[in-house]
Amino acid sequence: MNASPPAETSTAEAHHHGGFQYQPGLPIPRGKVCLWLFLSTEIMFFAALIGSYIVLRFGAPVWPRQHDVHLSEPLGALNTFVLICSSVTIVFALESIRGSYPRRAKAWLLATLLLGTVFLGVKGYEYKEKFAHHLYPSQPRSLIYERPDVYYRTAVKQRLLEIDQELSSEESELLREKKELAEEDSPQALDRLGTIELALDRNAHRQQVLKDFHFKTKLIEERDGEVVERWVWADLPVSQMPAFAYNVMPPAPVHHGSDDHEEEHFAGWNVLEPWLELPMVIPGGNMWVSTYFLLTGFHAIHVLVGLIAFALVLPLRLTVARAGLVENLGLYWHFVDLVWIFLFPLLYLF
Amino acid sequence: MESSSDQTVEKGHDHSNLFFVVFLALCLLTLGSFLTYFEFWNTRVPTASSRLFMMAIAVVKASLVILFFMHLHWEVAWKYVLTIPSLLMATILLLGLVPDIGYRMLDYSTERERFAAHPQEAEEIREAAPEAALMREGKLNIEENSDS
Question: How many beta-carbon contacts under 8 Å exist across A and B?
Fold first, then answer.
């Protein structure tokens, strides 16, 4: 293709040489060739990503169910619908340009931009939901453990001791400050005292939660003839870790809408008291978050690039001369839609 | 220079109706794959058939987008020059991944054996619901932790 002369010169040279006519490599504009070449590389890029996901997914001994990882199928379907709508609006934008309706074309392009933004907004909400449940692709934010084993038990104990330490040091710090401020009578000091009281209440509530959730058990002893009560950390035998993991984050029912989940009402300790941030067990969960965020993340980047391109083209006057530009933009956008067509069933419905 | 698509699309052919039909078809197909989400489908259709159905729908949807929205239906033979090599390369890439990733489970390393999830453990947690309820009520016989 490189050997072919430019199309404009080929016609002139054809006249000059009397009858010879050069043809470019492909009978389409160079911009479109470049875009298709780019899309070819993108096909391979996403084929590698989706292929790796499929191989990992079906090669894994265990894979979390959609609701175990807080995936919402209706939201995925909604996003699919939004992208399909955006695909048709960009097609109509191109049709309008070709029919010499620049204002109509601009309206369709704006609609595409808005629909793409809606897609990213929904995706952002979905990410927020994952992060709220501490579903991160890596440590230290991720709280996912693969098995309810001795390593999980150690992590739980570490976290509980960490909480205890945090609460104790916070309490002593607040009490010290309260004592200091008690001698002042300035309005600022009174305000601060109010804040301290609230913080102390919260601290007391959290200390009580540790007891209510039976992380701490009451021990009654006799010392020098006196009965003494003391709270000690409950032991967590490894054999009870599956039950503990269940309480931190109960697994989703096998079939949603069925009656086989008597514990449906129990949300889990991490949801009831989010500050606990207890390690949780999701078998196969680490691989799931890695693949989910990688695939949807790369797709979202492509959507974002498309939106930036739309935003750059939107202020231009969309005359017939710009049909090629919008056609190329449309091709890119349809490719983004294509990728999502495969991601939706693979991630949300499989 | 006019592209082949320009030659066909710009000859006064208004494809708006066709695009609208394709859009409706895409919506219906999405709805079709979303049916697999519901309880009635899950209890009646085997998982393998369900997955096959979803992938078939995805392929049909992708074909509709490629053929009509990306105008390949109206393009001449050049489309094969760009699309077939990349599809071939993508297929080879996928086949290359199988031995590297797919068979990694056949030979567990000690490290992996120690940390990787085992299928029975997912069930173990699910079945621990009654024990978990007892634990929440403090009725589980938890021994005093000696190192507390």
Answer: 249
Domain ranges of chain B: 1-75, 76-148
Closest C-alpha among A339, A319, A312, A341 to residue A93: A319
Cα A42–A86–B77 angle (5° rounding)?
50
Judged by phi (left if over 0) then psi (alpha if -120 to 50, else beta), residue B12 lies in left
Question: Rounded CA gap, B148 and B146, in Å?
Answer: 6
Nearest CA to B9 out of B85, B90, B101, B73 is that of B73
Tell me the backbone φ, ψ of residue B108, rounded to 5 degrees. Answer: -70, 135
Helix (H) or strand (E) holding A345: none
Q: How far apart are the first and last CA of chain A?
A: 43
Report pLDDT digits (tens) over B92-148.
888 888 777 667 666 777 777 777 888 888 888 989 988 988 888 887 655 544 444
| Predicted ipTM of the assembly | 0.82
Chain A residues in contact with B115 by the CB 8 A cut-off are 146-147, 151
Cα–Cα separations (whole angstroms), residue B70 to A291, A326, B4: 29, 12, 13
Largest Cα–Cα separation, chain B:
86
pTM for this predicted structure: 0.84
Q: Roughly how many angstroms between the first and final C-alpha of chain B, as a whole number?
A: 82
The structure tokens listed for A19 are: 């009858």
Contact A345 B87 (CB under 8 A): no
A297 contacts: CB under 8 Å, gap ≥ 6: none
> What pLDDT, in 10s, does the model give residues A289-299?
999 999 999 99
Q: Which residue in A287, A55, A57 sits closest to B101, CA to CA?
A: A55
Residue for token pair 């989706």: A50
Distance of residue B111 Cα from the nearest chain A Cα, in angstroms: 13
